[in-house]
Amino acid sequence: MKSVVSPAAMTLFSYKEETKMAGRKTGLEDFYILKNNKKLRYGYTTGSCAAAASKAAVQMLLSGQRVENVELMTPKGIRLFLEIEEISMGADEVSCAVRKDGGDDPDATHGILIFSTVKKMAQPEIVIDGGIGVGRVTKKGMEQPIGSAAINRVPREMIRDEVREACEEAGYTGGISVVISIPKGEEIAKKTFNPKLGIVGGISVLGTSGIVVPMSEEALIASIRLEMEMKKANGAQYLLISPGNYGSDFCRDQLKLDLDYAMKCSNYVGETVDMAVSMGMKGILFVSHIGKFVKVAAGIMNTHSRCADARAEIMAANAIRAGATLATAQKILDTITTDEALEILEQDHIREQTMEQITKRIRSYLRNRAYDAMEVEAIIFSNEYGVLGKTEGADQLLRKLQEEKAASGQGNGEKDKKQ
Known about the structure:
Helix content is 41%, strand content 22%. The strands form seven sheets. Strands 6-7-8-12-9 form a five-stranded mixed β-sheet, with helices on one face. It has a five-stranded mixed β-sheet with strand order 17-16-18-19-20, sandwiched between helices. The chain has a two-stranded antiparallel sheet with strand order 1-2. The protein has 15 helices and 20 strands. Helix 12 packs antiparallel against helix 13. The chain is globular and about 65 Å long. The longest helix has 25 residues. It has 419 residues and is of the alpha/beta class.
């Protein structure tokens, strides 16, 4: 099956390369979704490419033998079989690449080569860095600290795990230096939001599951509805909802919440509230990073940056409401990330007051969207400060969620005893 390729991506690689990709066996042949009676096939992330290339490069470095295919288990539990390209072997250094395949949900990175160059080190550690075409973080609020290569946490873990396994198999106990590079990354970055986010010099190496699942907007909203219907059918009256993985991780790791009644809404805050009202749910507790949910404080119910990106303006307006000076507001308006804005608010000793204003407005807009037909509350956090604010009824709704979960568990236990 030939991949569907965006016009932007087609300018970056040849038709011959695309045809070659379409004929490969990667292990994803049986994975697809149906959209309008058409099969849309899965792909794999830049993170998977970087991990697979690193695995192959280390195997070649330690064995002296060419490796032309590697097996990679992704965090999603899907096993990939990936072809290795552009192999360059030296006595002290090996470089090779894996070609990104976005499946039938391609973006500008579809078809590009992700390289890994590895060397031995005396120190027994694995050091991962970015080379040409991999962006550098220059602003706070990103997943990696300022100055680091924009290789996110999960891809770093994947690379480290594959390199460690290759070293153990070869009986090698020294260290390995890994440099990920993307020759076309700087060109591609111009088509992304990376420059606005303070990531310069290239693109980010991303992916939390290792797999790209093709999803149109309509299909994604439909999947949210289906998941909510399933939770309701299984007894849920209250839901714990986050836009994505950051919120889910915060719920589990920081708030110590059970995720049985948790789900993700992506950017579709308004549609999620609408669905819950139509199904007769009793309440939703949203848990979100400030970078997403600050937009809700201005009534923006689709938080995707292509729909609206007024974070600095919203932060500045609410800082003024909280008593900030005009000079402080002007500083906030010049920020790129919400973490930068929070730092300014912290320095001016007005962060808590500003978050009180923001959460008040988040609650007002959420309840208005729900027509007061159910409880809707929110907990807002940041990576640096933890919980930033809670809407007025958030703690009470949280208790109801916990009570419902406890009652459900007790009921199931009694039912099991009777059986």
